[in-house]
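notes to self, project folder thing:

trying the whole complex as one job this time. last attempt i did each chain seperately and stitching them together was a nightmare. two parts in total, labels are on each line so i dont mix them up again. if this works i'll redo the older ones the same way
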Amino acid sequence: MLKEFTKGIFKENPIFIIVLGLCPALGVSTKVINAIGMGAGVIFVLLGSNIFVSLLKNFIPEKVRIPSYIVIIASFVTIVQMTMEAFAPALYKSLGVFVPLIVVNCIILGRAEAFANKNTVMSSIMDALGMGIGFTLALLLIAFIREFLGAGTITLFPVGSFSGVIRIPVLADNPVRVFGLAAGALLVIGFLKAFFNWYSERRAG
Amino acid sequence: MTYIGIIITFVFINNFILTQFLGLCPFIGVSKNIESAVGMGFAVTFVMALASLTTWAIQNFILVPLNIEFLQTITFILVIASLVQFVELVIQNISPALYKALGIYLPLITTNCAVLGIAIISVQSKFNALESFVAGFAAGLGFLLAILLMSAIRTKLDNEWIPKPFRGIPIAFITGGLMALAFMAFDKALLTNLIG
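result (full assembly):
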């Protein structure tokens, strides 16, 4: 049971190892807070869809399984959209088109097809949590690097008198702007993926 | 915005892959050789233009009059999935040659975020029917351009020595990053200079 949980975080990390769900990973990773919001949304949808797919696995006819999964996923995405719009409008606005696009995030459909329709509810929950957390951690790492270098700040939740934005002394005045732009995102993920390749090879050999 | 403005915006300035990060999975996955990149590019262009027009009609004739815009996500994805199936059937019957060329890419397109992306962006930009169609078509052309350039570069890279950890996907990302840097030359100022 624990193995289902940890595999998504390290050994089968959706972003760095399986390379799925890239569009949101790059599109929203300009600020740490966006990564947290996106990660939470994906964990919720993944959990909901994995639970329902594994509950309904004996009732969904083989031929229409993909459309059925898509309907289940889209319903949970709509819940996320409405909740986020109501309670975190600023976050909803900055994530923009990427919130409805959780529907076509390949990780979610991928887990429904590859895991939840063959396994019990309990292990599907573990799988969803592991994959979701693995996705969120990868997103946080990318967002941290991009915001740290590209804007010289780290944006978190505002709590009390703390505005939620940490300024990095020298970088905040002279940020390396390219990291905040599209090109920076692709370069960062390229180098991170190369690093993980190098690391796993060194551990294996 | 004029139609030429929409085309320039979606092909160059807001190129879906290189500036908006929509449709990255096929961009990395299907760009290993030129033929499959071209096949995927044309299939995506075709579906995006149709999807953008169809979802415009659904939004304005069904969702808005009935006041059920909150069902947008779920309706759009179902419409796109059925549209892709329909296109597959039509092509299979009308032109087996075209089906042979595009067939294997069509099922992959349902989960291509560029298609749902253009549907949502067209609705948010309040485009009319023809503008939605043109935007979908232009965004598809932008996708075709980016994936074609990428596959040409990757074919050349096959003959070069690349450090081992960078082989395959990492070097593809870095190449994409450098292409995105080049595309930064296309900005709003270009549009104003060209068509005022």
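what i see at first glance: The two ends of chain A are 28 Å apart (CA to CA).
need to look closer tmrw
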